[in-house]
Amino acid sequence: MSLLLMDIGGSSVKYGVWNQNQLTATASFVTPATWSAMKSAMVQVQTELAQQFTFTGVAISAPGNVKYAEGYIGGLSAIPYLHNFPILKEWEDLFNLPVTMENDANCAGFAEIWQGDGRNQDVVSFLVIGSGLGGANFVDGKLVRGGHGYGGEFGFGQFYDDQDNWSVHGSPVQMADRYNAANGTAVSGKDIFDAAKNGDTVAKEYVENFYQAIAKGIFNISFILDPDMFILGGTITNNPDLVPSVKKHVQAMYDAIDIADMTPTITVGKFGADANLIGAAAVFYGHYPA
């Protein structure tokens, strides 16, 4: 028996099948412009894959403040039509199967807790680095949602005198926006990292500020939650300099206050672009044990 997985993003919807304890049959379609078109595209995927697999349920990763127990998605996202109506019931009726839904960043974290390096860790913070910053916190393998469901929305943290939030300083996308505005260029974050590696002094300053921003957030979270492990996610984790550079800045801050025994592991996620789908499966089996 298999599980149909879907990961809804602003530009595309990825899907796949969890079968025999592995992810298979992955593909995607362009995110539809309307709810009606979204439902049509989803059921078409189900119909096509049902020729190969027998499904016991559907697990969905979605943006926003996902309220599974209440059956709706609150908050905001790039897909407004997903929010603030009984969407879970509509999905259950559409697929005629049990359906679970969870926030996309939480799903990525669940993947690392379920099948990745976060297994058997007491306290884990998962940090997704992209156009902004998000993530999830886990204690004893359980997601810490918080009183209002916003636990892990790290990017709203304000660690700077200029009142900009952490996402402004800790996003490579926003780093590139600032660089381009200051230098009259149109380069990507990757271009800036490459230039820094090749000795460009201006690019090096931006890159070091970025690493320091990530480190500052990790340092602060260390004294709020005291994680055993920080797991970093997002495309930026393909950069081999990310972890050693962040570790260097974090250690410098620990050394400055003379705390030698604060030594959380800082690493990158195991599953990359598949994390949301795998984590959605973990969420489903948490509600419907196999």
Automatic annotation (TrEMBL):
<dbReference type="InterPro" id="IPR043129">
    <property type="entry name" value="ATPase_NBD"/>
</dbReference>
<protein>
    <submittedName>
        <fullName>ROK family protein</fullName>
    </submittedName>
</protein>
<dbReference type="Pfam" id="PF00480">
    <property type="entry name" value="ROK"/>
</dbReference>
<comment type="similarity">
    <text>Belongs to the ROK (NagC/XylR) family.</text>
</comment>
<dbReference type="InterPro" id="IPR000600">
    <property type="entry name" value="ROK"/>
</dbReference>
